[in-house]
Every structure is written in structure tokens, then in C-alpha cells.
Write a structure and sequence with these properties.
about 150 residues; elongated; mainly alpha; 2 domains
């Protein structure tokens, strides 16, 4: 990597410098992406994580040998927050989220309808995938618990 202008030859660039350099290089390499991006799909898994957290706190802890619903909803909450954090980091890395109000580059120019469409389509699909993984986890954990109780008896 060539040093950025104004950087000393032997200095180690910080995270912010690398982040800005990556955003500038992406825009130079892909000029069709120079238009403002309107990515906000990470907000759909965020809403699912908040809803799962609220539901987990309202469900009473069961004291049986099986896995409680509070624990299962905790899995969903962690999966959703993890997906949201990963997507938000990716959008920050590509310069689609800025650290000034309104934070989303698409909303800054008044394209709120496009941002909402993005949340509904892409964010909804990502949330559905997270839910599918969680349902798979529920099926596997139920099978493990059934097998464990069958071997004990």
C-alpha cells in the first residue's frame, strides 16, 4: 500500500486513516458507486433484537430440565445483535454511515423512501435468515434434549 499524501514513509497509519483510505479507494475503483449509498438494512435485525430482549424479559424463567423459553429468546437476541453489529461495521467501513446527523448518507439527501425500502427488503430478508437459523437451533437443541432424556430412562 502506498503511503497517503501527508503521511511519513515509516509511520504506521491508524484505524481512521485506513478507514478513510479504504473509502476513497473504493470510490476511485468503482466510480458507479460514487452516488450516495442508502444502506440501513442493519436496523431490521436491531429491531428484532430489541423485540426479542423485551420478550425474554417478560417470559418467566422455567425451572424444568428442558431449556427455558427465556434462554431460547436470549439466543435470538444475541444472534440479532451480532448480525446488526456486523452489518453496521460493514456500512461504517464502506462510508455509508457517517458520524454526523442524520448518520445515514441516504437520509441526508432526503431519500427516506429509498432507505425505508432498503430496510424492508434487504433488512427483512436478513432478519428472516436470522430467524431461520434460530429455528434450526431450536430443532437441534430439542433433539439433543430428547436424546438425553431417552438415554437417562
Amino acid at each position: 500500500m502506498k503511503p497517503l499524501s501527508g503521511m511519513q514513509k515509516h509511520s504506521v497509519p491508524g484505524f481512521r486513516t485506513l478507514l478513510l483510505h479504504n473509502c476513497l479507494m473504493t470510490r476511485q475503483q468503482f466510480p458507479e458507486r460514487n452516488k450516495e449509498a442508502n444502506m440501513a438494512c442493519f436496523t431490521a435485525p436491531l429491531a428484532a433484537a430489541i423485540a426479542a430482549g423485551i420478550a425474554r424479559r417478560t417470559v418467566a424463567q422455567e425451572s424444568s430440565e428442558t431449556i427455558s423459553w427465556a434462554t431460547k429468546l436470549g439466543w435470538l437476541e444475541k444472534l440479532s445483535f451480532g448480525g446488526c453489529a456486523l452489518l453496521a461495521f460493514e456500512h461504517i467501513w464502506h462510508g455509508e454511515i457517517i458520524f454526523q446527523f442524520p448518520f445515514l448518507t441516504g437520509v441526508r439527501d432526503g431519500n427516506a423512501a429509498e432507505v425505508m425500502r432498503e430496510i424492508a427488503t434487504v433488512g427483512g430478508a436478513m432478519t428472516a435468515l436470522i430467524l431461520a437459523v434460530w429455528i434450526g437451533m431450536l430443532i437441534v437443541s430439542s433433539a439433543i434434549v430428547k436424546r438425553k432424556t431417552a438415554t437417562v430412562q
